[in-house]
Amino acid sequence: MLSTLIIASVLSLLAVSVQAVPCVQFDANWNLYAFGGSSDVKLGANDTWASPSPSPLSTSGRPPWTGSNTQCILSQTNNAMYVIGGDSDLSKIYIYNFASDSWSTQSTSSAPSDLGNSRSSSVLDHDTNTLFTLTTGSGLYQLDMSSVTNSASGSALDWQAVENPSFSVSGYTVTAAQAANHIFYLGVPGTAAGSADIFVVHFAYFQPTAQAFSGTAFPDSAGQAVSIPNAGDNVPYQIVFVPNDFSNTYILTHWTDLGDYTVTSDAPFATNLINSTQTLPAPSSQDNAAAYAASPYALVQIDTSGNINYLSSPVGSDYTVASGATWQRMSYSLSGSGGSSNSTTNSTNSASASSSSSATVGVGSLAPSATGSRSASRSASASSAGSSPSASASSSSSSAAGKSLAARGDVLGLAVGLVALAAGMLL
Ligand SMILES: *[C@@H]1O[C@H](CO)[C@@H](O)[C@H](O)[C@H]1NC(C)=O
Ligand SMILES: *[C@@H]1O[C@H](CO)[C@@H](O)[C@H](O)[C@H]1NC(C)=O
Ligand SMILES: *[C@@H]1O[C@H](CO)[C@@H](O)[C@H](O)[C@H]1NC(C)=O
Ligand SMILES: *[C@@H]1O[C@H](CO)[C@@H](O)[C@H](O)[C@H]1NC(C)=O
Fold first, then answer.
1. pLDDT tens-digit readout, 271-301
2. Can you give the CATH number for the domain in which 38 is found?
3. Domain range for 199
């Protein structure tokens, strides 16, 4: 019967089973969310996690969650999340507006073909809302999201080649996070344990040498890394690094004076914490394709089976780690996530990191139109030798502008309508 067929097809449409790598993220008010299951859910504030009551989010326009290197990144200033690799097309960026519970999709152009070789390869610079993604074949790329804020713009954004790193990325599974306007690259093959390679955002410059961190040396290993956002919406000062050997959860702390890097007196914490490593226990679920998110008050892991583990109050207001902190398993787990992969794949790129490829991609004219009020304009040229294109992260990020209260549930509405129609035909 036709009506039965309609019902069946509608139901199967609603029950699309996805093979996803799920992720977790916080909104700017530190409510927790989990994405990538058969539905995406809001889990709410930390005082509800002991007995969670998840509420489903809008499905209209959400990512299909079919990518294997999915990253869910908070734009704290805009109370939005940018999803990279929500499907196999890493050039497409899904934007979730936390305040209006709505999705939109940002198209981009000039993306390098080897964008995103891990779940920690892209970093959103806090102050400029610019995405930086290190590729292993064609160097560092940037995508200026400052004009986008919390919903997609109608026109494509252009990826820009920045420059090649100062270190070899051969065999590197990119593991990056930001602290104080520096992007730290962890686990670069051949870098000493306890040291990280660095891109200095505001000078668009890869430091020629790695920076050593005091404290327990983290292994020279790939893994997952995220920044710990700052409650005052300043640039983050701390990084969570979970290496693939799960030896510890490493908290890296960094701060530099923007005007004069030799000045340490106005650091927001004890100066001996600058460029230091502290340790917390490793997560109990040792899944090296798990995703992590941090708020100033918690660290959360979701593994590829959808299990959620969290560590409350990992660091105090003085930026030192809590002693005796332990991971807890949430009684809720995200169902319908794939668990299709739990191991990061080594990049099998055969690229010799030749610099010629970057020349073919549009370089220059990097300055976005400044529309925002929260101007963070700064530009700098890469001063390294050779043909490195100069890059600027000049931008302005405006706070939550251009709210789009997009109608949610279009697809669901249509489906419900069809069911009603079919039911009507049966009667
Ligand atoms: C990944 O690459 C590193 C260095 O190239 C190598 O030591 C390691 O065994 C590789 N791991 C896998 C899972 O292939
Ligand atoms: C911390 O590391 C940065 C980056 O390498 C460096 O510029 C700065 O001098 C270091 N600060 C201290 C106090 O070690
Ligand atoms: C929960 O989060 C709030 C801020 O939203 C924070 O003030 C509080 O300390 C957190 N509680 C714990 C136990 O971490
Ligand atoms: C997941 O990880 C475990 C332990 O590392 C390993 O034994 C298993 O084969 C992995 N599964 C997949 C699908 O990679």
1. 999 999 999 999 999 999 999 999 999 999 9
2. 2.120.10.30
3. 2-426
